[in-house]
User: What shape does this take?
Amino acid sequence: MGSYAIFFGVAIGLFAFAATFALFAVYAERKLSAFIQDRIGPNVTGKYGTLQTIADILKLIQKEMIDPAAVDKCLYALAPAIIFIAVYLGFAALPWAPGLVPSKINIGLYYIFGIISIETLGILMAGWGSNNKYSILGAMRSAAQIISYEIPAGFALIAAVVICGSLDLQAISTQQGIITQEHIKFLGIWDVTGMGGILAWNVFRAPHLLVAFVIYFIASLAESNRAPFDIPEAESELVSGFHTEYTGMRFGLIFLAEYSMMFLVSMVGVILFWGSWNTPLPNLGTMQLAAWTTGAVWGIFWIFTKTLLLVALQIWIRWTLPRLRVDQLMNLSWKILTPLAFLCMIASALWRVYVMN
Amino acid sequence: MAGICNELRLIGKPLNGLLTAWKGLSLTIQHAFGFKKRETAFVSEPNYFDKQNGTATIEYPAQKLPVPEVGRYQLDVEMDDCIVCDLCAKICPVDCITIDSIKATEAIGQTSDGTTKRLYAAKFDIDMAKCMYCGLCTVVCPTECIVMTDNYDKTVFDLGKLTYHFSDMTAEEADEKRALLEKQNAEKQAAKLAAMKKNDPQ
Assistant: This one.
């Protein structure tokens, strides 16, 4: 019974985290987009407009949930829940600090990628269930996009997995810092096992992972339906695509899923490429910077900071680059990212066999 | 040869894409960090057009754009200078000015430019909801008492409040003046009748 209480506690905690993060991410997005466009953004509700998103959420909760007459009631009502739960379940396997992970499973990465691909199903249900041309077009585009981009994203991740030799996200994290039992070599030549810090991160252990990270990052933008890959939504051409018909908290859930997805894919990127919860400061002689800044609290701090930086990068990209056309999107995925990701994977295999031994 | 070219293009195009994307990104990040609150300045200031950076937002009620003092926004009437000639009401293309005049029994004063006032304005209303800001009334006014001011913000909660009342007479005063005029007219009529009787030879 006690363990069930812990499970529920963790689940509620993760949900609370996702919701709070979405609130602040929406605020950050509005503020940053305003600054980029020489505007001010919300600045009336609360100091600097900080209460604006909370006010918006309160308004959203009060809104009526409208079922248009022609929708497929079951699919239509279930879709937002499936979209959100798919992303929310992905949070379960993310490690936060040494020894701190909601669910310790040795195929964490595999699980995350399996579970978040269910989001496409939810979007398809939403689009089909809405019984509306724009929605079905949006849903079809979403299926095409997410299925296409899962391939380069997957291979870019495999490139990192090959270097680490594990699918367990906690094991992958441990390898990139000072508490590992293995030998870490910076660029494959310089042994930095006791030193740790930024030198031990995956992108510096095997430099071609930098390319893999760029591929993964681009593909992750597509997976979280963020601009410039937001063609499922495409508010200017598809009237918001698959969620045209949704109102009130159902729309809120779809929105929450998008922001949770941003955080999730950024965190996976950080774990696999940017040293997870490890500190960027190396041990230098008597200055045991890495040893001083490693631990549960520090771990949460580091991974949170790194992830938020990536989220900021996503926001920055959204407000800079224009949306891609469908054919450009497919071109990019199949002709450029997929072959490059394959090359990265092969490079990883060769690196593992010839350099790391 | 063609094969190599194709392969080069396959590398060159994505690279070019990344480079141009970076160009755009660096531009937007400069704007994000170059954030500066806007200062409103008058157009005649020497460095007015140099202010290219910072936000373009004007936080309206708290911050206002300076307008020229000869701006032509709201109509205003200096009643002391008005001789109630009704010209403005006549020229108004949208009939937004309503004037009700009462003839005075004698000269009631002078305007600031020396014109003698002989009429009371019982009513001088301008319906700003109808006004089209053509300014014709200000042009025809012989004493230049009707003018346009630089006050552009006259939002009201009640549409009726857009009808501006400029007459400073109360209803009682107006009735009194009307009675005086009627009395004078009656006296004149009586005098006329008396004179006619006297001249009548019979």
